[in-house]
Fold each of these.
Amino acid sequence: MRAEEKALISLFEEGGRGEPRPPDLPAKRKPLNQGLTLLSFQGDEALVSFPRPPRLGEALLLREGPRKLLLQVVWAKAEERGWVARAKVRGPWDGILPGWDAEIFPTSPPIPETPGPKIFLGRTLEGEEFSPGGRALEKVNVIVGAKGSGKSHLAKVILLGLIRAGAPCLVLDVNREYGGLPEVRTYSVGRNFKLGVREIGVEALSVMLEAFGTPATSLLYFETRLSKLFQEKKEFIGIDELISMAEEGEFYPTQSGYAADAVNRTLRSRLEALKLTGMVARSPLEASSFTGVWKEIREGGAVAFDLSGLSTPARMGFAQALLRFLFALVEEEEKVPFVFFEEAHLYVTPQGIDALVTRARHTGITSFFITNTPTALPEGVLRAADNLFVFRLPLEEDIKWVAKSGMIEESSLLALVQALPKYACLALGEATETYPVVLLPDPLLGVDTRGKTRYFFALPANEVQSS
Ligand SMILES: Nc1ncnc2c1ncn2[C@@H]1O[C@H](COP(=O)(O)OP(=O)(O)O)[C@@H](O)[C@H]1O
Ligand SMILES: [Mg+2]
């Protein structure tokens, strides 16, 4: 028998009977600290030595008698023998510094039990399921990260989870990528989804006409006349009717004169531009409605509005019209939707975001703002966010902006975000309580998450097979 084998068997020996037996579990669990040693504790940070490479973001438990302190590795360095890591206190702390007999060992991140149906989002670095209760995902959520980092994928994971939980969901899709998901119906705005003038509303029409370059005075005349028209006429109003009104000089108090002419001519050309978006219906037959969409999803389900065919002004107008509908809806509805704003920075105005966020608690509307440009989000949104999902962000400036949420110190956020594995994000907020969890979103195997992105260059046949 070789020396190693002997040594191994002697490990399993019990009472000298020489019977090899597997070690029992408590014995195996005992050396929990896995060679970790507390080197020092300063401020709210511990310095810990590791016999193996520490992982940024991993959780440590410090135990001293009945006291327990949760820490998170936020910095590490390799030394001649072993590694040293800095870990920050997370969660409740009585402010008392631990003494020398404190034990420190790896643990799994504490995932709070939150009310509502469990929504499976993925796994932690340690491989545990991350399934916050639906309630934890309500109100204001922000998903940020560089292009291709996995933001939309996570949004789809959340969306599918919400649909399964029976929640009504709306998506503003700018990349035609939600159409392939099961149970998501897509409407292409400007093609098979058009709205009447009344349903779009004065504000949204104004937003679009302004973006098309309508001067402020002409806009004012337009708004005044249109508001009056809404009162005078109860029937359907189409885009052609507005154009005729401009042709007939109706948007100026007097119908002749240089000023009247200029205002009506300006409005006419901008209304033609509006017509070209395809978003405004010409007749009731052509018109869809938000109310109809709401009926489809009220008892659970999702509708995605494909905005890919619209210009930026048209997208802004559409978002504005939708917001107006939603704010009116919640006044009479008990159920309220979850709304996903893909690439929010492209078309939701800071005022629109503000309105959603500041009224979120009153309206109950849940928003997901998904963007690769966090600096385009007003600071107030970050501070009001209930959850933040931060993917890879190469620009330090962006990370610093996100840190304004106050959910985590800037230095830790910088370190943790830079060390994220592929497709992983840092989840912070209601769903994680005080611990920033490194989340690996569910890969959604077997689900078509790519939608209908069109490419000019085809893939070789073998790559099509494997992708
Ligand atoms: N967790 C994941 N598991 C598997 N594939 C993923 C995951 N996250 C992203 N991907 C894939 O990576 C690509 C880019 O992801 P996407 O979410 O669209 O990025 P972003 O919205 O941040 O630009 C997509 O093809 C997507 O399917
Ligand atoms: Mg995306």
Note: The chain has three domains: 31-107, 122-193+288-441, 197-276.
Amino acid sequence: MLALFIWGALLVAQTLPNAAQIFVLHRFDDTRHPTTSISTVKLREVFTYLRENGYHVASLQELQEHLKSQKPLPPKWVLFSIDDSYKSFYTHGLPLFREFGYPFILAVYIEGSDQKYPDFMTIEELKDTMHYGELALHSYTHPHLTRLDDAQIDADTQKGLAWMQHHLAVTPRSYAYPYGEFDARVQKRIAAFGFEIIFNQNSGAVSHESNPLDIDRIALMQDTPFKTKLRQRFLKAQWNLVEIDPKSQQLQRIEISVDPTIKEVECYVSGGKWERLKVNAGKISHTFNTPLSKGRNRIILKTFDHQWSSKLIIL
Ligand SMILES: [Zn+2]
């Protein structure tokens, strides 16, 4: 029985493509903001683990080459991204990245630097950082993009890009949504600027089959069990239907297609708990009666072998 189980697990593992986990961090050693900060003690522990266990910390360029050519990723790839360009990254995070020689993507909240807000990096600090990692745009004003109309989204993005070109002489190839918030309309507007990679903040891993304009990231905070997160894989899922009752704003129904070899998934809806759903010939169809809350809601699917796919719903 045990042998059969192990053989089954091996078979599945062989057919799954490798996946990279892209971690997202915010502040470093900042005790004023414990929920969005990581200590450099913990980060050193993570970096040391990666180094001692044969992980490759990849650059965005390396990842993008695989996404473009649809070439499977090598095993044990990890990427790091940092959102908001807080000064604590420059003073506390960057020295550790430099010590380990690990590349990173720094998603810059432009207004913070442009207006010289004390908590954010200066132009000189951004320039210095560009020697070690790559910059992404994280908007000019850090708005809730789904609440803006098309012209407002365009104006914010244009302002951010113009600022980066003028002050840093760089046109970023990637964009990270403020608060990780987007919908199909927002994605289309941002993609129209020619970004080759767009980062969301839905937990999941990235394979060569991921959509470059919808790249999942895993939050890495002080209490994140990072070794568990390193097991996450990309779940190729087609979200065919997510039905929400417009009156009650309750989630009513989902219909999702996955690989037919998957027989069961676990599903989580924000505010609820994990529940097991059967998969019939690659189709998941489930009826809910779940009240969603104002703002960000997520529906997460995961398989027993750690493949993840999420859907963000903003009300
Ligand atoms: Zn942000």
Note: Residues 18-232 form a domain with the TIM Barrel fold (CATH 3.20.20.370).
